[in-house]
Amino acid sequence: MSIRFRLSIMMFLEFFIWGVFFVTMGTYIGKLFSGAEDINSVIGRMYATQPWAALLAPLVVGYLGDRFMNKERLNGILHLIGAALLMGVSMLQDEVPFFWTLLAFFICYMPTLALVNTIAFQNVDDIERDFPPIRLWGTIGWIVGGLVISESFFGLFPLPILPGIEDAGSRSVQFQIAAAVSVLFGLYSFTLPASPPQGRGKPVDFVQVLGFDALRLMRSPAYLMFAVCSFLICVPLAFYYSRTGEFVRQMAFGDRFGAVMALGQVSEIVFMALVPFFLTRLGVKRMLLVGMLAWALRYVLFGWFPESPVMLVLGIALHGICYDFFFVTGQLYTDRVAPPEIRTSAQALVGLLTYGAGMLVGNYVMGFWGDRIGLDPALRESWLAKASEFWLMPAAFATAVAILFLVTFHDHTHDRSAVPDGSDGDDQPMPREA
Q1: Would the N or C end of the chain have less CB density within 10 A of its end CB?
Q2: Distance of CA 250 to the CA centre of its chain
Q3: SS3 state at 158
Q4: Mind listing the pLDDT tens digit for each residue in 382-395?
Q5: Are residues 24 and 118 in the same domain?
Q6: Structural domain range at position 240
Q7: pLDDT band (50, 70, 90) for residue 192
């Protein structure tokens, strides 16, 4: 069995575990704690466990994985512990222990996202050539997780994968499936190619581990505004990840909603392949703007056409543009402007600002807003009556962030071979080699 094949299985299992429950979890939480007066805030707090853990993940990877333990062993240990915690989540029915157990799981799981990447980096011959097709299997794993839990092929026809279980996305079985696969992956991790710590014997620099040494990039007004807008755009982003599943379930797709949501990852694969094409023609600023405005458009579709299956699917399919045009372009932009010695730190800092701090704030804002407008997520009538209020707020927020970015982002750091001297580089195409 080739190393590339073994690493592809690793990526598939890694993202299957997350994808099989994360999209559908909101529906289960809404039913489990349906008696709570602040049910939207409860859902927001539960989803906030993921960004809280994302803030801590660099410490685990940077301290243990880089200095004290082989990464494949650390990955195995974390997934085995995570499996036990997922089983605990599936059995708990009280809010406080549910929150802390879910948080403990994500503290184990979020570092493994970086671990599987570094395991792959250390064991392929050519990272730029070999890693993208390996990472693609992670997205496929997320998609398959959605199809399994919904027992449907993208909502088109049934897939009786879980005999005797109906509407698994609203039941605790989703965590049990994730736990079983986590055990399998934990054991499989110990068979992966050896990935020894590369910083053994070096002093631990927590400033560098957290990416804070990249703060000097903020001296550039352009990068400062990019960082601020990256944080802000992830506030409305939290609405999509935590609430779209239960919304489309109530509006149109019933227990097939997990499979329909997986269309977002299919779109992600398509637009990922198109990023180089558009990047060389639109440039960084226009790409980032398109990504931000796609978030606003998606929420407008949800708010104005809540009963239209076509519009709901279109909003989900916009995920490829939302994610790839903003996040992937932002990662490439960061790599371009950061000096080589702090590029890793700069990427870590962007991760903390977006999927850490931005999503964290967004989940609490989402919960507050849902309770403020009186949304009852368990009732279709409530979603229908409140869809406009609920979704147009993050649409307006995303639009405001896009306008702020349009007015304030003026990138003068450009490749001279691609941008004429004396011109403003913010609307110029990114060089192909970036």
Answers
A1: N
A2: 23
A3: strand
A4: 999 999 999 999 99
A5: yes
A6: 205-434
A7: very high
Q: Are 159 and 229 part of one and the same domain?
A: no
Amino acid at 261: M
Same domain, 98 and 235: no
- Give me the residue label for tokens 């779109």: 267
Residue 276's DSSP bridge partners are none
Tokens 């994985």 -> residue: 65
Residue 210's identity, in one-letter code, is: L
User: What amino acid occupies position 252?
Assistant: A
Report the number of distinct structural domains present in the chain. 2
Q: What letter represents residue 387's amino acid?
A: A
Distances (CA, A) of 407 to 106, 229, 401, 413: 37, 12, 10, 17
Q: Answer yes or no: do 190 and 212 share one domain.
A: no
Same domain for 262 and 347, yes or no, is yes
Contact at 8 Å (CB) between 83 and 391? Answer: no
From 194, 215, 244, the end of a domain falls on 194
CB 318 within 8 A of CB 292: no
pLDDT tens per residue, range 90-123: 999 999 999 999 999 999 999 898 888 888 988 9
